[in-house]
Specification:
Number of strands: 10
Mean pLDDT: 84
CATH architecture of the largest domain: Sandwich
Shape: elongated
Helix content: 40-55%
Strand content: 15-25%
Number of domains: 2
Number of helices: 14
CATH superfamily of the largest domain: Regulatory protein AraC
CATH topology of the largest domain: Jelly Rolls
Radius of gyration: 24 Å
Order of helices and strands: EHEHEEEEEEEHHEHHHHHHHHHH
Length: 302
């Protein structure tokens, strides 16, 4: 049986790969060199108690994270949050290349504004196959920030050190969000194709018995069907259309509800049930929020 090896501290990371003791107990920036790329990861899975942001270039092999795997032959950035299960596939071939990995424990940012804001950076919940691809200029900008973090804890730590380190971590995250937005924009044709697939998933769901069997359609269901994370699908659709994936689903449901209300003699409760609502009150509340009137009043006015 495969084990899950839990890595709890920055010191453990340094020890596993043979780096000298860390200069700071809660944050480190490590080079991706042979100590990592030739390490025998075996068949075990790893659970990390910290955040990890990595820039990888020219590395052969794949990393499993969530449902998908990612091939690191291109320069990419990946983002892993605490308690995710990570596995290196074909570790014998996971070698070569360069890069760096920034690791920081949640305790580092817990009392800072970033401690609350970090959940807004949804790319920590993306699949690895949704990694960030950087241009050469972007790699330079991000790497400069990682170097500043390393330089800060390498020198004598004072009362300003943690604030400066956190500020640079936040800058990496802000730039990464900008670069993801750029990635969404430059892949607009691919994104539009994906939006068409998303719309098809909605149609097919409501053309089947799925609403009765599984309830109201969710973003998670759509994302699973399209083999991506909910956050990535949501961010992509919001970036492309200005509206969230949840909004699209709700508007689709309301349009279908309007057709059923005016095109059948079914009761409002029956229509709600057929759309996947367990309770008619929930359907009525959504319908009124989207149209300004109850389903009954809508039927009476048309």
């Amino acid at each position: 049986m495969k084990k899950i090896i839990r890595v709890k501290s920055i010191s453990e990371v340094h020890q596993i790969f043979g780096f000298e003791k860390p200069k700071h107990p809660l944050v480190t920036v490590l080079p991706i060199d042979e100590r990592m790329t030739k390490f025998d990861y075996g068949q075990d899975n790893y659970s990390l108690d910290f955040y990890q942001i990595s820039l990888k270039q020219g590395i052969k092999g794949t990393l499993s994270y969530g449902r998908n795997t990612y091939d690191f032959q291109e320069g990419t950035m990946t983002f892993i949050k605490p308690n995710q299960i990570v596995k290196v596939e074909n570790s014998a071939d996971y070698q070569g290349g360069t890069g760096w990995t920034l690791i920081f424990h949640p305790d580092l940012i817990r009392k800072s504004s970033l401690g609350e804001a970090i959940n807004q950076y949804s790319f920590f919940d993306y699949e690895v196959s949704e990694a960030l691809h950087l241009s050469d200029e972007e790699k330079v900008s991000i790497t400069e920030l990682a170097n500043k973090i390393s330089q800060e804890y390498q020198q004598n730590i004072d009362k300003h050190s943690q604030e400066i380190i956190i500020a640079n971590i936040e800058m990496i995250l802000r730039y990464s969000k900008r670069y993801y937005d750029r990635q969404f924009y430059t892949r607009t044709n691919l994104n539009k194709d994906l939006i068409s697939k998303f719309e098809r998933v909605m149609r097919e769901y409501y053309q089947s018995e799925s609403p009765i069997e599984h309830g109201v359609l969710t973003v998670k269901y759509c994302a699973n069907t399209l083999a991506m994370s909910s956050n990535y699908l949501g961010d992509l659709i919001k970036n492309e259309t200005g509206r969230s994936a949840k909004d699209h689903i709700q508007e689709f449901i309301i349009e279908k509800a309007k057709t059923n209300i005016l095109g059948s003699n079914d009761s409002i409760s029956e229509i709600a049930y057929n759309l996947g609502f367990e309770f008619p009150q929930s359907f009525n509340k959504l319908f009124k929020a989207k149209t300004g009137m109850s389903p009954t009043k809508y039927r009476s006015l048309n």
